[in-house]
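pasting for ref
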Amino acid sequence: MTTEEHVVLVDGDGNAIGAAPKTSVHGQDTPLHLAFSSYVFDTTGRVLLTRRADHKLTWPGAWTNSCCGHPLPGEPVDHAVLRRLSYELGLEVERADLMLPGFAYRAVMGNGIVENELCPVYRVLATTPARPNPDEVGEILWMPWKEFTEGVLSGLLAISPWCKEQVPLLTDLGADPLSWEPAPPHELPPAARVKG
């Protein structure tokens, strides 16, 4: 018997205040909850973009960053990144580097469904090919980071709302994504400072 996946609910200061079934939190009154975004790069600095599967509840069919998801209650966020990369993209990677520890956003779809997430952002280096899981990913595309960021910042590249907000913050870290300096874990919100 499979149990339903739960997400961590947080208050405005980033403290955990409970958990709720993942299927119940995304609606027109979505509570603030803990999530993550990750950007997968290859050794040449290309970023892996994914098109969300067409049956996704939030932003179906939208192009976005490599992988997003939710840590389970008690799960370190970087572990959740590795777990979801394996499940969604067939990538087995050694580690996820914390880049934007305090990123948060709220976005509303045309149908009124809301995303409301405290969403630390991670960088990952992959050395093996991605094998997308069709349950999660409709399509993938590797793109040079400079080309990607210029497309997003100019508005010429249609991308998910969270990715659109993250890209300017990531470009502030420097032109070469492989040389970004990771943020210290203590800068994560309290709910995300779970020890592995």
